[in-house]
Every structure is written in structure tokens, then in C-alpha cells.
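Researcher: Before we compare anything, I want clean individual predictions. No alignment, no superposition, just each chain on its own. First chain goes here; please echo the sequence and then give the C-alpha cells.
Model: Echoing the first chain and its structure:
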Amino acid sequence: MKSSQEMNISVVWCLLVLAFAILFSLTAHYFIAKDGGERSVCVTFGFFFFVKAMAILIVTESYLEFGLESGFSNFSESVMQFLEKQGLESQSPVSKLTFKLFLVVLCSLIGAFLTFPGLRLAQMHLDALNLATEKTTQALVHINFLSPLHMVLLWVKPITKDYIMNPPLGKYSVPLKILSGVLRIQP
């Protein structure tokens, strides 16, 4: 892209901060309310996502492509350079285990914050299915509901690298390249 067409990434970060501030205030409202089981559901789902994130981080980089190894090394190098500029000496800012534990806690908090929006989405999906009478409309509603699952599956390295980037076409495997937003098949 030309430099005039580039988008300022800080706008995206500001929008993400606003979205999570709204989610946090919504979750705080659930904790303030005396009646209802929203508090216990948020805590339960927070612990559920904590265990789930711990299990996912145990899986090696050969199966799930998160880039944590390179991310941790870049983080460590950046912190070391910052500390050297400040005149402080340190061997390592944090260990890899502490880094992963911080990510697990962050993922569990995000999972707890997204519990009720997810439950509302599921209820909206059921309402849309009850209102849809045609089979094509119901199929589109199901595709719309399952599209986040498709995005999550793109993180799994064997699916992404083997079947999407090198799809088997009969006896041959044709590599695909994505150039400037257009999918092109390489001969």
C-alpha cells in the first residue's frame, strides 16, 4: 500500500480500549446487581477460560501458530534495550512461564467479559432460527453463527498450512498465494 493509504493503527487500539471498557462496565454491572446469577456465571466462565487457556498454551508451536516464542523474544529484547537506556541492569525482565501465565490471566478475563455477549448471541441465533421459515435462510443463519469458529480454526497450523495454503487437487498440490487481497494460484 502507498503511504497515503495506510491506516493509523492507534485508531484500532483506541476502539479496542473503548470496546473493552464497555464490556468491563457491563460486567461490573453484573457484579453490582444483587439478584440473579450473573456474578457466578462470570466467575465460572472466567475459571473455565483460565483452564482452557492453560491447556492451549501447553500445546507446542508446531500445532498452533500463535507466535509466542518470537513474541516473547521480541518482548524480552525490547525491554532489555529500554532498561539499558534507563541505566538499569537486568538479565531478563520476566521468565517465559511468567509471560505465559500473564497471557492466561488476560485470556481468562477476556473470556469472562465476553461470556454474556456470547450468551446473548446464542439467544439471538435461536430467535433467528425460530423466525426463519426457509431452508436457505436457516442455512445462512447457521453459517453466520459458525463463522467465528472458522476464524478460530485458522489458527491451527496443520489446517492453515496444509489444506489452505497447499490444497490437494487430485494427485497434485497447488500452492496458493494471496497478493494484494486477490487469491491467485501459482502454476
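Researcher: Okay. Second chain, same rules.
Model: Second chain and its structure:
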Amino acid sequence: MGFSSRKWAEIISKFASRVYFFIIMLQLPLFRFPCRIGICQTPIDVTVCQLIASETFPQVVIKALLYPGAILKFFTQGTTIPSHDQLLNSYKSNIKEPPPTTDLKHLEVIAGSYLCVAGALLGLHKRGRMSLFGLALVVWGVLTEISSTGKHGIDLSEDGVCIYPKMMIAIAVTFCSMRRDLRKLIRICKFKSIAFRKLKNDSKFKCH
């Protein structure tokens, strides 16, 4: 007996939310954008820069956000795993005080990054649209920056602003994590499949 649309939606959304969690927490590069440490490539980078600068969150929270990415670099790039304090100090030493209007100018990317990180954490328990809204804001902010600088397409220079192909994967995974919307999509696909099979059988019957 096959699974119902509700069951399939639950299975797929749960799997997708965990994939998205690892994409964010392991700090896979999704974009390239100027920030307080120079160039940020992940929502974690942008979020951590703001948290350190604002000094409103406990350092243990910031360390917990940074460390998974450091572990991934150890396995993929052969770098040494720094201590929690070394990792945090490395970020702090690279942070520069931007002009007063910089954060306001990049508000979409900053707010979107916050939502991306919060959505990844909350999505393990209650899946919703927060992550998708966050990614949409980040993409909008990056595209706006590209448009304002007059550089179209992908800028591959060291400090160029761009969106990496992994962003499309993150968006697709985030959409699949939204159970209600996914359930509706599965229902539509099932309806079309049943209608197609019925039409096919009717055609065979008429031929005979």
C-alpha cells in the first residue's frame, strides 16, 4: 500500500529541512558579498559579523555557529581545527567598522542571513517559510548590489559580488521543506498522473 500525500510530504519535508540545516551550518558558499570581514560567502558569515559587532549575543552562541564550518574545512581542505576561542578571535580581528550607511544599504542581505540561520535551526522542529524568505532576501540584496555596481553576470574577481550555483540547490531544498506547499504539489502531480492514465486507458479502449 502506497503512502498518502500527507505521509510523502512529511518524509520529504523532514529530509529537506535537515539537508538545508547542514547547508547553512556547514557554511557551504552560497554567494559572495562585501561585509564587515571583507567578503562573506555564507549566511553564517554575515550573521556572525553582525552578532560580534552588536555584542548582544553570548560568545558561546557565536562559537557554536562557527565551529561546524571549521570542522568541514578540516575534512575538505586539510586545515587544522582551531579552538573555539581561536576561531572567534580570528573573526574579531578581521572585522572592520563600516561607514554608517553600509548596514542600511545591505539590509536585505543582513536580514535575509538572520532568517536563513534562524530557519535552519527552527526547521529541525517546526518547518515553515522563514528559510525561503531569508534566501529570497539574500538573492534580492545580492542582485541589487550587482545592478548598482553595473556589473552584470558573474564577477569572478576576488572581491566580486555574485551568487553561486549552490544557492539554487538551497532554494529548491527549502521549498521541499515546506510540508503544506509540498503536499499540495504532490496532490496535483497525483491528480495529473491519474488523469493521464485514465485518458490513456480510454484511448486504448476506443482503439479496440
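Researcher: What stands out in the second chain?
Model: Strands lie at 31-35, 38-40, 162-163. Additionally, The mean pLDDT is 77.
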